[in-house]
Structure formats: structure tokens, C-alpha cells
Design goal:
Number of strands: 10
Oligomer: single chain
Helix content: 10-25%
CATH architecture: Sandwich
Strand order of the largest sheet: 1-6-5-4-9
CATH topology: Immunoglobulin-like
Structural class: mainly beta
Length: 150
């Protein structure tokens, strides 16, 4: 079997790379779509959200983010999560082979399906996952939420 030249990629990998690039370009400007957007100033982290009779629970993947660098706000039925993942550069000058991990500012606005009791909202960060628990009530106001490291 003949050896492939250095830097060779099979045609299917090249096609997949090009399709991914086209979708990323098409989604630029839509942070609420939930897609990571490399090369832009804001990343929209992935979200899982569920509710029962008593509460709404929102989980966001924020690996490598300091909980103190996250700002949570609930106002007029929308949970807004903002923050920044610091740039972590190698000590010395290096030749990059891949650079896909996102860094920089992030923001996500999440509409809530019910009114929440803003005085009882809790937030916990564990293993890179931010969990925000929003107890339901009939009427709500605005509140800043403190994140507890765990």
C-alpha cells in the first residue's frame, strides 16, 4: 500500500471540515442558536433545561471557567448567563497543531416558561457544569445570583 504524503486527509474528512465551516459561517450572528462560534467575540454555551411542578433547572457546560467570572441575572422571565473563559497561553512560543477549544466572552439568554421566586434561586458549579435552580412562583422580579463553587 502506498504511503500518503504528509498532511494528507481523506476526501471525506475534507468534506466534513468544509461542511462544518459553512455551518459555522452561516450561524455567525445567532448566539441564541447555542452553537460555539470560534473566531467571533461571543460564544453561546450548550444548555440543558428541564422543569417540574416546583422548579426549573438549567445546566450549562462551562469547562475551565472560573465561577467568579460568571454573571447571572434573572429579569422579566429571562435568565442571562455571561462571563469569560480566560486565555491560557503556553509559557513559551509553540507551533500549534490544533486549536479548537473556545476562549473569550460567552453569553446566553434563556427564556423561562414560568415565573420564578428570585429570592430562592441557587447556582452551583461542579466539574465544569453550572447548575441554576429556579423555584417557581406566581410573580417575580430581578435578582443577581451568587455562584457557589462545589
Amino acid at each position: 500500500m502506498a504511503r500518503q504524503p504528509r498532511g494528507y486527509a481523506d476526501p471525506f474528512s475534507l468534506l466534513q471540515h468544509e461542511i462544518n465551516r459553512l455551518f459555522e459561517d452561516a450561524l455567525r450572528g445567532f448566539p441564541e442558536a447555542g452553537e460555539r462560534r470560534r473566531g467571533s467575540s461571543v460564544v453561546a454555551p450548550s444548555v440543558d433545561m428541564y422543569e417540574d411542578d416546583q422548579q426549573i433547572v438549567v445546566k450549562l457546560d462551562l469547562p475551565g471557567v472560573d465561577p467568579n467570572a460568571i454573571d447571572l441575572t434573572v429579569d422579566e422571565g429571562v435568565l442571562v448567563v455571561r462571563g469569560e473563559r480566560a486565555e491560557q497561553e503556553p509559557e513559551e512560543r509553540v507551533a500549534w497543531h490544533a486549536r479548537e477549544r473556545w476562549r473569550g466572552r460567552f453569553s446566553r439568554a434563556i427564556p423561562l416558561s414560568s415565573q420564578v421566586d428570585v429570592d430562592r434561586i441557587t447556582a452551583n458549579m461542579k466539574n465544569g457544569v453550572l447548575t441554576v435552580t429556579l423555584p417557581k412562583k406566581t410573580a417575580g422580579g430581578a435578582r443577581h445570583i451568587k455562584i457557589q463553587a462545589g
